[in-house]
Amino acid sequence: MTAADHAISGWGRLWRCSLVSSVTETVPAQSRAHGAEGGRPAIQVVPLRGLPIVAVVLALLVVAIAGNWLWALDFFHVVGGGLWTAIDLFVGLVLGPILGRLSIPARAEFSARFMPKMVLIMPTLVTMTLGSGFQLARHLGNLDAGAAMHGWLVASFIVVGVMAVIALGILEPANIAVLFEMKKPHPDGAIIARLMKRFIYTAGVTGVMQVATLVIMTRLAT
Amino acid sequence: MRADTTSATVARRLPPVAELAVGSLALIVVGGIYLAAHIPGPVSLVPAIVLWALAAALLLVNAALLSRLSGFAWGRFRQVGGWALLAYAISAGMLEYVFVIDRVPARELVWLSLMLVVYAVDIPLILAFSVARYQSSD
Q: d(Cα A11, Cα A14) in Å, to the nearest integer?
């Protein structure tokens, strides 16, 4: 499933750290007191200026796949996968806890500017990684059921499948719905809190899947 | 007054459209993994067809549930769903392109393509419903 996993676990952890407490407790109060113009940054759910960059990356990916160009496929897979996992872990383990210690207005402002960018960055990285990865597996012969590494490859399919269902079916809709809620003049803290609970429920599974991905990929490359 | 309205939005019971769509998506993912794990070698299509049929049935149930929904934010639903459909049509199109480039056998390609159709409809449906359910009705 390409373009899966749009909302990644670290992303979720960031949301959880930065918004569950802040927005649910303070933004509605601020909003009621000061209205939408009360200092909250405007939110653009999808940053349109980033779309041309995404288009260029996807076009290059198509060229790499069409040409079955081993170096380019390797590049897309390693760069995309490395950034995907690194951003995920960095956001979840480093940025999230730091953000949790910032003042509530700082948290809300950072999140309002950061999260829409992630809406573009993560799907692009995931598409790069999975699209090139499938083609790379075919190029290297690992798709063949008789290949020595085929079992590991199928394991990676399963890991990606689990992450896809969680990310696409549970986390991404929550992220988008929260962004829409935060765009309202009077965001409802109860709605945001309810949506953000999904990240708490799924954090363990997505964390395990990330570790499994690292194990499988290093095993495949050895 | 506004708080009452939004609380009512949260409290309002809606049909389990998102849950059914997630179930449908999970079936498609399992079917996709099954086929991807076997191609290019010989593979029985029966499990893939059964999984696709169940996923498509859930999608149809969702369509029926949505058609009976009144007092819903259909404008927002169409807005989010439309753009998401465009995005996921591109995503599905790229996958289809890879399958064609890789010369996936015709029978398997048909079912993979049908799975991609359900995938490309399921996700926009989940996104659109998840956003619209918390918006004021049109």
A: 5
Please report where in the chains the tokens 């004021």 appear, as a residue.
B136
What stretches in chain A show pLDDT beneath 70? 1-41
Sign of CA dihedral A41, A114, A15, A202: positive
**B116 is written with which tokens?**
């991609």
User: What's the Cα-to-Cα distance from A22 to each of A101, A106, A192, B118, rounded to whole Å?
Assistant: 11, 10, 10, 38
Check residue B77 and give its pLDDT.
Answer: 94
A134 touches A77 (CB < 8 A)? no
Q: Which chain B residues touch A if contact means CB-CB below 8 Å?
A: 2-3, 6-7, 9-10, 18, 21-22, 25-26, 29-30, 32-33, 36-41, 76, 80, 83, 87-88, 90-91, 94-95, 97-98, 101-102, 119, 123, 126-127, 129-131, 133-135
pLDDT of the residue at A39: 58
Closest Cβ opposite residue A191 in set B6, B33, B98: B6
User: pLDDT tens-digit profile of A21-51?
Assistant: 444 444 444 444 344 445 566 777 888 888 9
Q: Which residues contact B71 (CB under 8 A, 6 or more apart)?
A: B137
d(CA A185, CA A28): 9
Question: Chain B residues with CB inside 8 Å of A153's CB?
Answer: 37
Task: Identify whether B117 is part of a domain.
Answer: yes
The ipTM is 0.85
**Number of structural domains found in chain B:** 1
Share of chain A above pLDDT 70, in %: 81
Half-sphere exposure (Cβ direction) of A8: Cα atoms closer than 13 Å: 27
DSSP A101: T
Q: What is the pLDDT of residues B109-129, one digit of tens each?
A: 999 999 999 999 999 999 999
Question: Residue B9: inside a domain, yes or no?
Answer: yes
Q: Is B88 inside a domain boundary?
A: yes
Report the predicted TM-score, pTM, of the whole model to 2 decimal places: 0.79
A145 to B98: CB separation less than 8 angstroms, yes or no: no
What are the structural domain ranges in chain A? 9-221
Average pLDDT of the residues of chain B:
88
